[in-house]
Amino acid sequence: IVALRSQMRACYTKSSNTDPTRSGKVVFRLEIDGAGRATRVSIESSTVGDKELERCLASTFERGSYPCVSGMVTVPVMFAPP
Question: What pTM was computed for the model?
Fold first, then answer.
């Protein structure tokens, strides 16, 4: 997940262009198969108030690789203005 940090930051930067005070937390649920691929990504909860940001982050997780994990994983992502 650390490898995805720059892509997640790009999602947040794009969102903060419309609202520089954007902050909050999105909790994702990832279902990881034995090959380390996310077969399902869903949002468990969110307080960011930006569906486009949530979609961008979900897409980032969908493209990620998780070789050391299989099964269901919950990942919280927190944002705050710089």
Answer: 0.91
